[in-house]
Amino acid sequence: MLTITVRSLKYACLLLSIAAPIVGCTRPPTGSASGSNSGGSVQISSGAGRRVKICLLPKKKGLAYFSSCNDGAEQAAKELGDVDLIYDGPSDGAPEKAASLIETWTLKGVDAIAVSPNDPGVLAPAMKAARAKGVNVLTWDADGQPDSRAFFVNQATSQQIGAALVDTMAKDLGGAQPSGKVAIVTATLTAANQNEWIAAMKEELKKYPQIELVTIKPCNEDQSVAFQVTQDLMKTYPDLRGVFGISSVSFPGAAEAVKQAGKTGQVLVTGLSTPNNMKPYVMDGTVKSVVLWNTQDLGYLTIYAAEAIATGKLKAGATTFTAGRLGAKKVQGDNILLGDILIFTKDNIGKYDF
Amino acid sequence: MTTPIIDAEAVTVTKSRSGWAHRLTLPTRQECVLLGLLIGTLLLAGRLSPDFLTSRSQLELSTHVWELALLAIPMTLIILTAGIDLSVGSTMALCAVVFGIAVHAGLPPLVAALLSLLVGGGAGALNGIFVAKLRVHPLIVTLATLAAYRGIAEGISLGRPFSGFSDSFTFLGQGSILGFPVPGIVFLIVLAVAAVMIGGTPLGLSLSAIGFNETAARYSGLAVARIKLLLYTSSGLAAGMAALLFVARRNTAKADIGTGMELDVITAVVLGGTSIFGGRGRLFGTVLGVLLIHEVREFVSWQWNRDELNLVVVGTLLILSVLADSLLSPKKR
User: Fold this and answer.
1) Is the entire prediction scored with pTM above 0.90?
2) Is A88 in Cβ contact with B305 (below 8 Å)?
3) Cα(A92)–Cα(B234) distance, rounded to whole angstroms?
4) What are phi and psi of A117, to 5 degrees?
């Protein structure tokens, strides 16, 4: 028995002796280069040539939507020249992991953190703690609690989005008096963004008395659930004319269900998603229009805004803000508005790649 | 060291596998491997990013791990008896939601917290009754309650989040005493209690005996059913405590917290050298397993900003440690 433990100690020594040289080999080159990967050494001087460290936190890493936002963000960082961009987020979308990341970045002493909160409540304490330690916190894509951030980079107001969705559906249904039963497939019943859009959609639907909203179903941000929910909807309402898929996941799920049921043209699908996701359905006619904002511009604007806030160029009370190639953007209260809805159809979808 | 409550055969079995008396004092082979990996990780971290190793960073980052660490204690003991509890994450959610509802109904936080712990203990006891009295396999029982408890949590909360708890309560998750985070103190107390129970009473030996051969343990007069009931109840209780720590830290109680937590906990326990088939393992190994996973994860996101890398790294770690253990082990096993 004792021999086993003695042996195990021997192996521990062996392991250590293996580990030590490995660690030795990976010592970073000394001198000027060591600052670039040490992560923690942010200079606090305010002179010229100071690098601005900005962290961009998506709701979930690995989604095409957020990756395309990051493309725009990288472009902005390159143009600005003084920005070190970190893009990371929970690959499973867990809000507590997002909060942990904010805490880690705060410890490292970054200048600004731009958060797309997947759960404003869970993230709020971490965001407030970051602000208390002097980090500039802003939200983008989705808003957090108002006192947890300085600004919100808003892609479009919920009124704009709700109206665009309903008007697009009405146009696609056609006729002077568009009519028929429609349903909404949403992300989850508690998703703040989606619920605001639904409220705006209901408001806009009053313009079209012949269109009847029969039900709202959640898909729990799962494409296969969206597929099944839409199949069930078509069975429950055989005369269904339209489905709104109002998340980047529910939209393709709904479109696939309509396509497989052979109801292309009979049941119209529209909603919010990235053009690359929806290209096949737009090309085969299942989907006539896709509603979204330019996601690359959203990431681009977010980084410009974060840099301006961190360097003191953008302060509370400003009414406009110039963001590189996007030109002057409106600032409404603490909302920085991107403000353009894009509608992708067969004619223009080929021009976009994200 | 050993006590006469257990029959000679079980003792010989235990001893012949790894030597109970020595296990109490000297690290096992697996634990040495873990220590080596841990030291290696910290050395690497120190080279690449000295700021990561400062006590301020380490204390701050430690707040990410206490709930996992807390749940790993009863899980170790359960796996030691060849059982498993998959429902810990869901029980956490249930307890959190019960606490949120109770506070919003006007109960003082202390009463709400006790109620929440009661629900946790009750949820664990229900698992225990099915496992111990009705002799259903724990995998099946807790797989069922994994779904059921979360379902109840979602049902009674209607998916709403609860927040806005008082500062005296959030101190439990966010505060620190003499610079040490409060959740860490809670963990250390629970660990100490568990260690005394396992090391200082016959219970520890009984658990291994049940894990090696439950029938033999039963025939030798061990109160197998009562011990199992106790274990699953304490696991539910720990989930209740973890839920309170989580809610206090994030100031939010929601039905979707702790999702996937059970797998993280089991990973840490198995990495710590506890045999998934029962009978072999100890708390020291689990603490090392939790520590290693924590440090590696935190360092990977600190240094490389790649969350997806973390999944790969933890998986690799698990395989490496098992591989190292089987390569270094004597051939006779």
Assistant:
1) no
2) yes
3) 29
4) -75, 125
